[in-house]
Amino acid sequence: MIGRLERHALGVLGLFLTSVTLVAALAAPLLAPHDPVKSDFVASLKPPGTPGHVLGTDQLGRDLYSRVLYGARIALFIGFCTVLLTAVVGGLLGLLAGFFGGWPETVLMRIADVQLSFPFVLLALTINAIVGLGLRNIIISLSAAGWVVYARVVRGEVLSVKQRDFVQAAAALGTGRARVLFRHVLPNVAPSIIVVASLQFSQFIVAEAAISFLGFGVQPPTPAWGSMLSESRDFLYVAWWLAAFPGMALALTALGINLVGDWLRDVLDPKLRV
Amino acid sequence: MRAYLLSRLGQTALVIFLALTAVFFLVRLGGDPVILFLPMDIQAKDINEFRQRLGFNDPLITQYGRFIGGAALGNFGESLRYKQDALRLVLERLPATLALAGAALLLTACLAIPAGVLSAVRRGSLWDYVGMTGAVLGQAIPGFWLGLMLIYLFSVRLGWLPTGGTGGIAHFIMPSAVLASFYAARMARLTRSSVLETLREEYVLTARAKGLAEWVVIAKHALKNSAIPIVTLAGLETGQLLGGAVITETIFAWPGVGRLTVQALLNRDFPVVLAAVFLISVTYTLINLGVDLLYGWLDPRTRREADAA
Questions:
Q1: Is cis: bond before A221, omega within 30 of 0?
Q2: ipTM over 0.85
Q3: Predicted confidence (pLDDT) per residue in B241-275, tens digit
Q4: B130 touches chain A (CB under 8 A)
Q5: Which of B83-97, B124-138, B232-246 has the lowest mean pLDDT?
Q6: Comparing C-alpha atoms, which of B284, B282, B287 is closest to residue B87?
Q7: What span, in angstroms and rounded, lies between the C-alpha atoms of A64 and A243?
Q8: Half-sphere exposure (CA, 13 Å, Cβ side) for A150?
Q9: Cβ separation of A214 and B262 shorter than 8 Å?
Q10: pTM over 0.95
Q11: Pick from B14, B189, B265: CB nearest A129
């Protein structure tokens, strides 16, 4: 968008931010100076810069720095599982619907219409309120709300790839339908799946935080950024750091993944709009 | 045109019907609202009486038939919590949500479109960098965190603005800014890329060649032809604004549909949840229909296709 070179620079910045989050997530037990869920009432609500507590402590005296690090773990875990689940399920359904057509395609696209007639966050929130709280259920809820995007994009791509000469030729040579589908069609729609996945990743992480913020999703004392922000609301007058740092971590993570996603789109599939 | 409109309205009705059906069954699968709703020390006999009265003891299919029959007439039953008609409760909250969404849209349009056009026209300038950096940041910063930080700065620290609730203009400022932030960012980026594409067209060159003032070229030739993707996004975003409203309304204690829906979900007040689902999907699909009709005005070529459809 801003010219080749700057695009790459932004992509590298995105990669850097994403790697920082990834390292924080993977090495949280090594990097964190304290147990993220251990209370210490003597040291409650200490401001940032207190010896032993770089980012301060919360109302129960838990170390905020450790909690933010562990938060990365939860955010990336949820984002990763959801993206994987939605890409496989949505991608496969879109692939089959676009390739075989018929009434299953009609039904699938109708379901997609229904889901898309509802704002994403609200849909995931409603499903979450019904299936229940916790880590596993938030992944299920986000996936149930998010798979349609892949199904739509992949189906559209398959419809056009199906008409291309090499696919027609393979079919004419007597190649089996499954082989045409997975050897000739799938590799040609894979870039779109990757681009959609990278653009959805941060959306899932932010949606999870928003849902946990509203009191659903991941529950305290699990150190998820969204529920930390939710708890921080009661202490906004006395402890700004409880709201500032988890949110900053969330925003930088989302920024990093967005930049990587934009970069991938420019390289792999410049025409795709999601 | 009329046949097209009728078939679109038919599709809309079908989508809403399916959405209500899906939510109804999800809700019923999700557990017993009665247990959660009644006091802890209640007798089993009374629970059963309560369920009998609300019709939860009937077969699921009977309940579904009764629900759809009622919904068709706009009757979603009584709120379990407020003991009022559920749809009326939701409708009462609608003006507040619409006012907030309207303010956010206005703010988005006033900020994002000029910023996008300016960035495209002065490509590579300081304006471009500032505008697009702002847009990329705006897209990444979660609205609920921005809301908290604004409350901290303007209400807690400076004491300039109220932390929440409704009242005067001052109550509108932070919620609409938070609601607008994400959408404005996307809108600005899309406007920029769309205008950049249009500026390369030959008719823009022609318009310049015949000596039109630059602002006429931009406003009349470039902007109107860039408008289709912008309007599409605006339409989609208006629907998503309703989702964003859920979070914004909760942070700022705004008495709208979004906050009511969250509370109803927390309280398992299902008649209200279903009425809200109904209202939101109606609003959302009607907005999309409006957007499709706008295309015909913006791009006359799509009119014939629409007639044929």
A1: yes
A2: no
A3: 777 888 889 888 888 898 999 888 888 888 888 89
A4: no
A5: B232-246
A6: B282
A7: 10
A8: 31
A9: yes
A10: no
A11: B265
Q: Report yes or no: B284 at the A interface, CB cutoff 8 Å.
A: yes
C-alpha to C-alpha distance for A169 and B15, rounded to whole angstroms: 39
pLDDT band at A162 (very low <50, low <70, confident <90, very high): confident
Residue type for position B242: L
Q: How many CA atoms lie within 13 A of A206 on its CB side?
A: 27
Please give, rounded to a whole number of angstroms, the shortest distance from the CA of B15 to a CA of chain A: 5
Mean pLDDT of the residues in chain B: 81
In angstroms, the CA B116 to CA B192 distance is: 4
Q: What digits encode the pLDDT tens for the residues B84-106?
A: 888 999 999 988 888 898 888 88
The rounded distance, in Å, linking the Cα atoms of B271 and B160 is: 39
Residue-by-residue DSSP string for A165-211: HHHHHHHHTT--HHHIIIIIIHHHHHHHHHHHHHHHHHHHHHHHHHH
CA A190-A193-A195 angle, to 5 degrees, is 110
Mark yes or no for CB contact A130/B30 under 8 Å.
yes
Report pLDDT for B56: 74
Residues in chain A within 8 Å Cβ distance of B239: 119
Using a CB-CB distance cutoff of 8 angstroms, which residues of chain B are in contact with residue A127? 26
Residue of B177, B89, B82, B92 lying closest to B138 (CA atoms): B177
